[in-house]
Every structure is written in C-alpha cells, then in structure tokens.
Amino acid sequence: MRSIIPFILTAATCSLGATSSANEFNELSLRTIKFSPYHVERLPLAAIERLRTAEPLPRPLTSESLNDIRASLSDISSLTGSTISDEAIEQLQGRFQRKLWGPGYIDVTDSVAAGFEDSSQAPLIAPVATPEYPTPDPSAHPELEPMLKMVNSTELREYVTHLSTAYRTRYYRHPHAREPTLWIEAQFASWLGVNQTTVVENKFNQPNIIGRIEPKSRNSSAPIIILGAHLDSTSQIPWVAPGADDDASGLSVVMAIMRILKANNYQGNYAIEAHAYAGEEGGLLGSDALARSYKDQGKEVRGMLEFEMVGYQPPTSTNKGKSSTITVLADPVPGMTSHMLKVVEAYVPTAERRSVNCGYGCSDHYSFFGEGYPVVCLASYGPNDKYLNPNYHAMSDTADKLDFEKMTDFVRAGLAWILFISSHPSVMLSLPILLLAFSSTLSVQAAPAAGFEDLSVRAIQFASGHVERLPLAAIERLRTANPLPRPLTPESFIAARKSLADISILTASVISDEAIDRLQGHFQRKIWGPGYVDVTDLSEDLSRRSLTRRVDAPAYPAPDPSAQPELESMFEMINSSELKSLNAREPAEWIRSQFASWLGQEQVRLAENSFNQPNVVGRIEAKSGDPNAPIVILGAHLDSTSQTPMIEAPGADDDASGVAVVMSIMRILKANNYKGTYAIEAHAYAGEEGGYQPATATNAGKSSTITVLSDPVPQMSDYMAQIVQKYVPTAEQRSVPCGYGCSDHYSFYDQGYPVVCIASYGPNDSQLNPGYHTTNDTVEKLDFDKMSDFVRAGLAWVVEVTA
C-alpha cells in the first residue's frame, strides 16, 4: 500500500540537485507547459514571455487575432521550430495586463519524458484524499493565545519591504535571482536553526527555501503540514519587479507564522514546513519540482496552505467594519476549502470571508495537488475579483500599496490552522500515493541555466491540457506584447505569428492558436501567473499520466481560536514594519539569510533550479522531531517580472508581499518556539512570476481583504476561509478562482498535494494591483498594515493544522 497524502500548504523539502544547464531557460529554450489538466504543449520561453507581456487583445480572440499573434511570434517559431496552439495564446496573450493570477500554467518540462509527443498526451488525473479534520474549536487550543499576541504588522511590513526594495527584481531568470533566497534562508535559520532550514536547488539559479519545525515525537517520517508562498516576482518588465503583494505578502505571512511558532517552542503531532518557492512566475517551476520530489520520496503531507497576494486590501462595500478580507480559494480540493473557511470563521471572526475559484495552475499549491496532496490557498482576492490588486504583475506592485494590519489576519488564520490540524490525528481517506522522505541537509549546488536560453524550446501545457513546444523567446515576446483585442481574430493570430518570425526561423517552431491566445499580451492583460505550466522537465511519459488531479483535502478540525492559546503571543508579534522591510534586497540569498537567522542554518535550504534563481525553504520541525513527519507548507514566489524583466521588475506586490507574509509567519512561529504535529516549511519560489489593498466599497471598515482562491482544491479553500473567518474576522473575506498555473501552489497540486492560496485579489478582480507585472509594482503602493492579516491567517492556519 502506498501512503496517503492528506494535505499541503506549499512545498516539500529535499535536494533536487541542479542537473540541468541554465540554458534550459534561455529565450529560445522549449518548455513543456501544462495549461490545463488536458492540455500540454512545448513552447519557447521567449514566446511565453512575449505573449504574457503583450498588450491584451479583445476577448474572445478571433481567428484574425490568433493569426496576428502567431505572426508576431514568427521570429521565435522560425528559430525554435515550434507552433503555438489557440489555447496557449488565449491563456498567455496579454496576461500581465489582464491581471490574471499566476502564470496560468505549470511548467512541467522536468517531468516530461524526452520522447513525449503531443499526439500521445492524455489527461493527468490524480485522486487526492482530504483528511477528516475535526471541527475548529478555539477553546481546545489555549496555546494559540500567546502566539496570536505576537502577530504584528511591523514584522510583515519589514519582510515585504525588504523583498520588494532590496532587489530590483526576484525574477527567476535574473542574474541575481538567487540573492533573495539567501536572505530567506538566513531568516528561517535564525528562527529554526541551520539544521532545520533547507536550500532546495532548482535547475535555474533560484532555489526553494524550506524551514521546518519537527513534530513533538521527533519522528522524521511524521506527516508534514506545509505553509507556502512563492519568493519570485515578475512584471511587464521582469528585470524590475518588486512583487510586494505578489508574493512577498504571502511569503511574509508564512515567515511570520514560522517565527511565532518557533518563538513559542511549538511542536505538534506533525512536522511543520514553511516553503518559499522559486520560479512560480515561470510556470510553478520551483514548487512543481519540490512537489514531485516529495511524492517520489514518499513524504506524507497532512495539508498545504498557500498564501498568494494577501496584502492588497482595499475598502469595499462588503468588508466595511471587517478587520480584513480573506478569500479561501474554492479549488482544487473543496474539502480543504471548506475546512479552512471554518478555521477563518472560528479564529478570525472579524474578517470578511470569501471563496472563489482559482483555476488550474494559479499558484504553487497546484503543484502539490497534482501529486495527490490536499491543499488550500488563502488570498485577499481571487483571480477574477473586482478588487484584485491592480498593480499585480507590474512595476507598481510596491509595499506602500499594501495593508499590513489587515495582513495580520492571514498570520492568525495560518497559525490557527496549523495548531488545529497539527494537534489532531487525521482520519485519511484511502489514496495510493508515495510520500516523500525529508532530508534535513541539502547540498547547495550551482545551478546552470541550460534550457532557459532565449531560443531554447520548452514544453508548455495550457489549461485545456494542450501541450506544445515553444521557444522561450516566443513565450516572452508574446507575454510582453501589447494585448490584442479579444477574442483574437484570424488576423490577430497572423499578426502575432509575424511578430515571432525571427524566433520561428531560428528555432523552427510553430506556435498554435491556443498558445497565442494564452500568451499574447499576458502582462498587460493582468492575468495571474504565466497562464501555463512549463512541463519540459517532467520525467514521466505524459501519454500515461493524467493532467487532471482530484485532490481531496484532509478532514481538518473546525478552526477554534480558543483551542490555540499559543497563537495569542504570536499574533502580538505581527507587525507591518517587518513586512515592509522584507521588500528590499537581492532576493534568494537574502531570504535564505533571514530564514537562517530565525530558524537556524540547518533549517534553511536553497533549492537550485535549472535557471539562475533558487527556491528558498525554511523549516520548523514537527515536535516529534521526526524529519519524515508530514509537512505543512507556507509558500510565496520570490521572483518578479515586468514588461522589461531584465531591466526593472520591483515586484513589491507580486510577490514580495506574499514572501513577506510567509517570512513573518515563520519568524513568529520560531520566536514562539512553536512546533506542531507536522513539520512547517516556508517556501520562497523562484521563477513563478498580497500586499496591494485598495479601499473598496466592500472592504470599508475591514482590516484587510483576504481572498482565498477557490481552486484547485475547493476543500482546502473552504477550510482556509474558516481559518480567516475565525482568526481574522475583521478582514473582508473573498473567494475567486485562480486558474491553471496561476501561482506556485499549482506545482504542488499537479503532484497531487492539497494546496491553498491566499491573496489580496484574484486574477480577474477589478482591484487587482494595477502595477502587477510592471515596473510600478513598488513598495509604496502596498498596505503593510493590511498585509499583517495574512500573517495572522497563515499563523492560525499553521497552528490549527499542526497542533
């Protein structure tokens, strides 16, 4: 019998070893991108980027617009020999300006067999069991009270500020992409200890970082509770991508939760891991690799909680009088969503609770869901929400636009969730899944970037399941192009292909209508994430693998703030200044250093990618001390992008804000010496690519807006919504869909892990950060006080699920 994987928040902890050259991520490298459970195609990286950053075309795309888009990629197609499908074009075109969550796809290049052919593809489906968590009961967890008192917006502000200002960008392909991961690692290590912080190298130069709290049993094989956020950022000019909200905000919540747990010496029945994922904006690259590694090594995950864009919290008509808005994403594991909604209701009763769909690959939790793990995601708003951060995926995604006080509700929800599910044994539904064993020491290896050159051809999978091979240069050009009117017409497709003619000649590539539709104008269309998954590195033959994962959430107990008194002291430690300070320096290395300073060097790891930006992972071991305990993951992506990614991409909101939340959560957990039943990992992901919290009619009087993405595991979204409701009751709580590959959690979802993602707003929300994926994604546009609600939610979630 294979073990059961109950749930994941964000990623896993293991050394993947950088075995591929960074050339796999050059402009013309072909990536295997999964756009939906049924559609995988190989696309040049350049085509993905060009489509995403292009001006959005009117929807629906017409035959003419599809042809125009293909014409705009003809240079890439000719260079790579790639073709792009209609679905790929639909997902990617103008995605940045369309404000769609996350990449909208999963880059599964590393999981695709070398001889994979599009004609042989089949749906990728994996059943996911939802643990039967008890109903959240605050009175049952008095240890949460001191933790909640440690939650503070200053901490969140410091994290987000550092992540979004210390580095011009955290974009996973940037030459300095690994720098923020070092800081995250240092933070985790400073709280958890060096031995509890793992650097998980990717094939690009940005590792994942994992921080771990051992279970009280010290059983290294104990199931894991994961808190996750991606550490990378992007914008229309990805070289300037502050990513304060996307996802420094989510990462800051994860960090705050872990710090508070550790400060309270908390250890639950399960290991607790905080994951900072690299390369989320590149197609959930870092989280997908981690999720696959966890599955391959047989790790059991009790649940994964993803934090995605939790800082942008505008006042709205529905969150008036609320402390924040917490949206629990409704998919991909409905049971996880349902339980999280109960946790929010029990522990953050002052928050507005919402639930909306996220969509395939909308964030890193989808990577774990894809491996059969139960996942849930918290955000301020979902992908299609009116109030989604308008600076999302823009250079204006800065910390000044985030509400760090409202973000504290996410820390509370995360703490409550972790304590609640960590303190209760789970009744897990039957599910054949091999769990991944945790390695406490991961070697940090230099990660060559072969396969990511401009003309490298990547296997790209779009939301429909369609996979095609596209030159990286074509992807980039389509994404950064001005969006064409939607729907794309035949003339539009022709124009798009013409724009790629030089790439097509050099790569001998042809781009499909779908690829053009997905990628063209992606950045200016303000679509979350890449809008596809790069499946180039998938090792298995996709002809025998299903793209559709059915991930059921663990049956978490109902969130109960009174049962988690240890959260009180943690909540008192939440501060917006911390979040703001985390938006500031070279990403991966700095993130690693921050994790290490909290968690200890041994608890922080850089996970190298095949591009030059590692993921950063900070870890708090389960109280059992078992290194193989299931993991709870907090994740956010550390990279950033924009229409000029190599020049300027601050990414303050996308996703320095998420990373800041993850970091703040981890710091608070560690400061409280918190250890739960599961290990807790904070992941800062490279290459993916919420602090933007505008005042809206629905969040007037609310402390923040927290959107829990409703997909890909609805149960995880429901449970996170409960966490937000219980622990951040003052927040406006929302839920919207995210969409395939929208952020790093989709990497874990794709591996069958249960995931959830929280953000300020979702991909299609009108309030989505207007600076998203632009050089305007800067710290001053974020509201760090409101971001603190995300730290609260994250702390509560962690404590609830790991207690």
UniProtKB/TrEMBL annotation:
Keywords: Aminopeptidase, Hydrolase, Metal-binding, Protease, Signal, Zinc
The protein's enzyme class: hydrolase
Residue stretches making up the Peptidase M28 domain: 208-412, 615-697, 714-793
Listed EC numbers: 3.4.-.-
Keyword flag Metal-binding: yes
GO biological process: proteolysis
One function term, GO molecular function aspect: aminopeptidase activity
Needed cofactors: Zn(2+)
Family under the similarity heading: Belongs to the peptidase M28 family. M28E subfamily.
UniProt-recorded name of the protein: Peptide hydrolase
Organism: Rhizoctonia solani
The organism's taxonomic lineage, starting at the top: Eukaryota, Fungi, Dikarya, Basidiomycota, Agaricomycotina
